[in-house]
Every structure is written in C-alpha cells, then in structure tokens.
From TrEMBL, chain A:
Lineage of origin: Archaea, Methanobacteriati, Methanobacteriota, Stenosarchaea group, Halobacteria
Keywords of the record: Transcription, Transcription regulation
InterPro entries cross-referenced by the UniProt entry: HTH_bacterioopsin, HVO_2928_N
Domain HTH bat-type as annotated: residue spans: 186-234
Domain HVO-2928 N-terminal: 6-173
A Pfam family matched in the record: HVO_2928_N
Family annotation (PANTHER family): DIMETHYL SULFOXIDE REDUCTASE TRANSCRIPTIONAL ACTIVATOR
Record protein name field: HTH DNA binding domain-containing protein
TrEMBL record, chain B:
PROSITE patterns, sorted: RHODANESE_2, RHODANESE_3
Protein name listed in UniProt: Sulfurtransferase
Pfam name, any one: Rhodanese
Keyword Cell division annotated: no
Matching InterPro entries: Rhodanese-like_dom (IPR001763), Rhodanese-like_dom_sf (IPR036873), Thiosulfate_sulfurtransferase (IPR051126), Thiosulphate_STrfase_CS (IPR001307)
Transport recorded as keyword: no
Span of domain Rhodanese: 27-134, 167-286
C-alpha cells in the first residue's frame, strides 16, 4: 500500500531577521502559499501565490521579482545559485510566480536540505503569514524524518526559531492550493466565530474588538479576514447562479 | 587565517586536508581520514578521496550492550581501518561534524594520541567543491599496537551517577538539544525510535543549543564568538561542566568546543544523555523554561 506522511513544522522569524518575511510581518493582509519541487539538490522550482490588498501586492511584487532577492535560505547564508522568476498570473490582489533555482553550489533552503536526506520523492508546501512560515513536507515513508528534524532545525540562522507541529500519516492536504476560489482555513475560523457570536445579527451581538480578543488576533486582521471571506462567498454565490 | 591552519591543533581546515590527500590515501598508516555521517547514505554518494567510511550505527556502538565501543572493539575497528597507535586521524562528517566529534571524543576517552576534526565537515567540503570520490577505500589492516584499556581519559565521560551528583551542585549542566526538547514538549524527534518515557531536562541544566556553536557554512564560530557565547550563559573556563543531548552525539560538538577549542578545564560528555535519564525510574526531571 502506498503511504504518505506529512511532516509539518513552523519557522518563526524575529523582526528584521529576513527581508522577505519582513513584508509579511509588517503587512497583515499579505499571505503566501508556495509549492516546491527539488529532485536533485542542484535544482529547485517554486510556484508561489501571494495574496493581499492591492497596494500590498504592488509593494511585494518588487521583492518577489527581484532576482537578487533570496526568499529561500534559512541559514543567513544566501544561496549560491542561479535564480529566475517569472509571473504566471497577476491581478490587483494576487501575484502568482514561478521561480527556477539552478546551478546550486550551496543553498540552505528547506527543500534543498531535505532533498539530500529523502531519496524517493518529496513534495513541499510553505505558507507565509505574519511572522510564521509553516512548512508541510510530504514523503512516502518516515524513516528519514528524524534526521530531517535534527538537520533543518540546526541550520536556522539568527532570529529564526523552529517548532515541530506534527508528523501524520495521510496529512491534511489542502486541495485549494494555489486556487483563488474559496474561503481559506483562517478566514473560515474567523467566520465561524463571528456567526456563532452573533456578529452578523441585527443589531450585532458582538463587536469586532470582542471577536479580535476571542481569536487572539489584531482587530485589523479579523476585519480583513471577514471582509475577504464575505467577498469570496458573495462572488462565488453570484458566479454560480444559473 | 585562523589557527585551524596549524596542524598542532584539534581542528584542521579543509585546505590543510586537501593538501595532504595523497598522504591520507596512502597504504602507509601515518595519516588516515575518516568520514562518519549521521545520514549513513552520504558516504557512498561521494567522499573525500581516501576517506574511510564508518557507520555510527554499526561501527561506533558496542555489539552486545547499550554502550560506546569497548576498548577491544575500538582497537579492532581502528586496525581494520588502517589506523595504528601512531596514526594522525582526521575525522569529518555531516551535520557539522556530529558523529565526527563523537568519534573524536571516543578516541580521546580511550587515549588515541593524535586525532583532529576537519572544520565544517562534509557540508563545507561538498559546498566548496573539494574533490569527491566514489572509489572504495580499504586501507591495509594494521595491528593497533597498544591496549586502550583502561581508558586514558576517563574524565571526559560522565555517567548517570556523575549527573545525579551534579544536580544542585556547582557543576554546570548543559543541555544542547532544541528548546522544545529541553522544555519537555518533545520526548524524541518525529519518526525516531530514540524515545524517552518522560520529557524535560536534568534539573538546573542550562539550554545552550549545539547549533549555536556553528556558522551558516558549518564551520565553527570563531574562538572569540564561542567564548562570548558561553560567557553569556555564565559558563566559565574553570567551571566543572557536563554536557548532554539525546544520545550523546550532538553534545560531543559542545564538548569539543569547550574542551578542545576553548580549553575549559573540566568538561565531561554524558553519553547516556536523555535516552538514559528520561527512561530511568525516580530521576529528577524539570520541565518548561
């Protein structure tokens, strides 16, 4: 029987530790999802989708498209490699890019490090939101995961902290990956709490500040997630009308 | 350049090794290069020319009990690896020399007189395009001409009794694992069977992550930076220090730094580490920060 294991962990970035992550730390509306493939440690390719407010997307696109910008090294040592990035899709609130990293002499990116330890195929997904990069590593067997845990955690540079999330069989693969449709998990959570607490009743039974407290999030984040979620639902509703 | 260029120290540079590859690869046993990796698959993909490959699971553990090699086992392993009592041994490996320093520590414990570590290990060697070979390396077996029993330096090794006695004393206990292991949130890394019944750390132990000894290029930080790191934690050169991790390999890095690079007076590696302490009945354990 074919097995799949999901090894998930977080890397938390201190303020100022990484130029690219800094954009996500400073801008609540920005979020990135990326899938990585790395079959040979000398090459890696990345599909990344960044979403956010219009002005945030404009600002971050310069970072994403700059070839000198190393978005992937976790050690503090920039990758010695060739990097090319091209735009696959662009709209005011979403930028989708393809990045090809080749001729790698060394590169302390999670997929490159991991590819040295896992021989039989591995798939990666990274989600960047605020100060946290959440990694999901999908493998066919778990016998190298312990090594990967010890190795990856040790490669992190100053201002980066590692925390293990889970190792499960099967995994919670998010089938909406790179898809613009639908309400995202964190938006769904905000929506669920809002409905449950009567935020959509008239008059409102709870304020945004109270929701923010309950979710332990900044008010602006909750507001943004609710707006995005309701916008997606409204658009989806209209689009699916016969 | 750093003092690592000097052959008189415990740490040698990759350049120093690269200049002597012919000597390492010679049948003569004056010099021998040894690669010991955590990931035992690495050696066959390419190693420094002439480097003998050791498998830590097969070669560096006692055959019939849970322990490091016995003196007799080590003498046999060294002889079969073309190493005599007079050989200059240089060890290197992956993960910034985890098992290379563990091997170094075992040789020091038993009293092999000349052993060094190649700075940066396998990672630095491959990242900087030093030569690699997939040729098999099998130097002529030699007689290790001196008994390694009893161990020449028993004072580099701590037993569980030593650790127990150190709790609440002036001895500085240093736990080099990740913070989440130290706090007791993780009793063993995911997918690894090196488990403990309880998580946490030895009461009073300081948590100084082993990786803090290492630069991004996998070489050791400068002596000045390393001195400052341990000073920051209040660990002084005159302190009695015991280091530990999960199975005693990562702590070998910290032992090497404190004892061999910084010249601390008294540093012991507790190789039983958490897989022993966290599984024993009645041992004191502290959790959290």
């Amino acid at each position: 029987m074919t097995e799949m294991y999901e090894f998930a962990f977080d890397i938390r970035y201190d303020d100022g530790a990484d130029e690219y992550m800094q954009a996500f730390i400073e801008d609540d509306s920005l979020r990135s999802e990326a899938v990585y493939a790395c079959f040979d440690p000398a090459e890696m390719w990345v599909l990344e989708s960044v979403t956010g407010d219009t002005e945030s997307i404009t600002a971050v696109s310069d970072l994403v498209l700059a070839e000198s910008m190393d978005r992937d090294s976790v050690s503090g040592r920039p990758c010695d490699a060739t990097r090319q990035t091209s735009t696959l899709a662009s709209d005011p609130r979403r930028l989708v890019t393809f990045t090809y990293v080749s001729d790698v002499t060394y590169c302390d990116a999670v997929p490159v490090i991991a590819a040295k330890y896992v021989d039989d195929g591995v798939l990666f997904r990274q989600t960047r939101d605020g100060e946290t990069a959440h990694w999901q590593v999908f493998v066919q067997n778990d016998d190298q995961i312990g090594l990967l845990y010890d190795t990856l955690s040790a490669r992190l540079g100053d201002g980066l902290d590692f925390s293990f999330d889970h190792l499960t069989e099967g995994g919670q693969w998010d089938s909406r990956l790179l898809s613009p449709e639908g309400v995202r998990p964190e938006q769904r959570e905000a929506l669920a709490v809002a409905v449950e607490r009567g935020y959509f009743e008239t008059p409102r039974e709870v304020t945004l500040d109270e929701l923010a407290d309950e979710l332990d999030l900044p008010r602006s984040t909750v507001s943004y997630r609710l707006r995005r979620a309701t916008a997606e639902l409204a658009k989806g509703f209209v689009e699916h009308q016969p | 350049m750093t003092p690592t260029d000097s052959p008189e120290t415990a740490l040698v540079s990759p350049e120093w090794v690269a200049e002597r590859l012919d000597e390492f690869a010679a049948d003569d046993d004056a010099y021998r290069l040894v690669e010991v990796d955590v990931n035992t698959r690495f050696y066959d993909r390419g190693h420094a020319p002439g480097a003998v490959g050791l498998d830590w699971e097969r070669d560096l553990r006692a055959a019939d009990r849970h322990d490091i090699l016995s003196a007799a086992e080590l003498e046999r392993l060294l002889g079969e690896s073309g190493i005599s009592e007079d050989t200059t041994v240089v060890a290197y490996g992956d993960n910034s020399n985890w098992f290379a320093t563990h091997f170094y520590w075992q040789l020091t414990y038993y009293g092999h007189s000349d052993v060094r570590i190649m700075d940066g290990g396998r990672g630095y060697w491959t990242d900087h395009s030093y030569p690699l070979s997939t040729d098999p390396v099998d130097p002529p077996t030699v007689e290790y001409g001196r008994s390694l029993s009893p161990p020449a330096s028993p004072d580099v090794r701590a037993s569980r009794d030593d650790v127990f006695a150190a709790v609440g004393s002036d001895t500085k206990l240093v736990d080099v694992r990740l913070a989440e292991e130290y706090r007791g949130e993780i009793t063993a890394p995911p997918g690894i069977d090196e488990v403990a019944m309880r998580g946490g750390h030895v009461p009073g132990a300081l948590n100084v992550f082993w990786g803090d000894n290492i630069q991004p290029d996998e070489q050791f930080k400068s002596r000045e930076e390393l001195r400052a790191l341990y000073r920051e934690y209040g660990i002084a050169p005159t302190d009695d220090v015991i280091v530990y991790c999960r199975i005693g390999e990562r702590s070998s890095i910290t032992w090497f730094v404190l004892s061999e690079l910084l010249g601390y007076d008294s540093v012991r590696n507790y190789d039983g580490s958490w897989t022993e302490w966290g599984n024993m009945i009645g041992m004191p354990i502290e959790r959290g920060e």
